[in-house]
User: Which sequence fits this backbone?
């Protein structure tokens, strides 16, 4: 019996897919003529792969959305924002794990990151300007601008960071629908410029 989690990772995202299967060792195999698949002689898949049910998948989506929503509601900029608008953003967020030393935000980034745990450092002209402790968000100008804005700083994860990302197309879609959370983030961005 095999019960594993397959983990697919990139620099900014991680997807975990549970996989369950049963394998039998065949003591000897003289011919593979009766085999449908060219499997190794010592193993044969005898039960189909079991994926999470739709109910289990939906439960995971709801748990992730609730976690992301709680994080967003802890952001001072979203204080007083309607819960429905926060939830509309939360359901579009992707869970991310960012290793220490990985760039969160620079001129190539088109994602906004909401960090629940970890610390990041902001550099301008290769000089450390300040540090951010969670919870915080970065990259709002890259997803709320029509064109990628000129970037004068780079944000690097100082420790391993856990949180969520929002891609430019999802932010644009939310803004087009009049999402109040995105409007508040845009207003905060304009006030800081």
Assistant:
């Amino acid at each position: 019996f095999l019960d594993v989690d397959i983990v697919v990772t990139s620099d900014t995202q991680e997807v975990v897919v549970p996989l369950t299967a049963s394998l039998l060792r065949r003591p000897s195999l003289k011919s593979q003529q009766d085999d449908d698949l060219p499997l190794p002689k010592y193993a044969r898949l005898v039960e189909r792969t079991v994926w999470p049910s739709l109910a289990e998948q939906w439960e995971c989506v709801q748990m992730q959305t609730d976690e992301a929503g709680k994080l967003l509601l802890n952001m001072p900029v979203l204080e007083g924002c309607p819960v429905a608008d926060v939830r509309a953003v939360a359901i579009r967020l992707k869970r991310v794990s960012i290793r220490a030393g990985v760039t969160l935000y620079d001129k190539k980034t088109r994602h906004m990151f909401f960090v629940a745990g970890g610390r990041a450092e902001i550099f301008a002209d290769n000089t450390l300007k300040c540090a951010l402790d969670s919870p915080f968000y970065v990259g709002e100008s890259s997803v709320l601008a029509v064109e990628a804005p000129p970037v004068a700083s780079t944000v690097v994860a100082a420790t391993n960071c856990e949180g969520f990302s929002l891609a430019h197309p999802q932010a644009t879609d939310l803004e087009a629908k009049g999402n109040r959370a995105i409007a508040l983030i845009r207003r905060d961005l304009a006030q800081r410029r």
Summary: The first strand starts at residue 2 and ends at 9. Residues 39 and 45 are 8 Å apart (CA to CA). The first helix runs from residue 54 to 73.
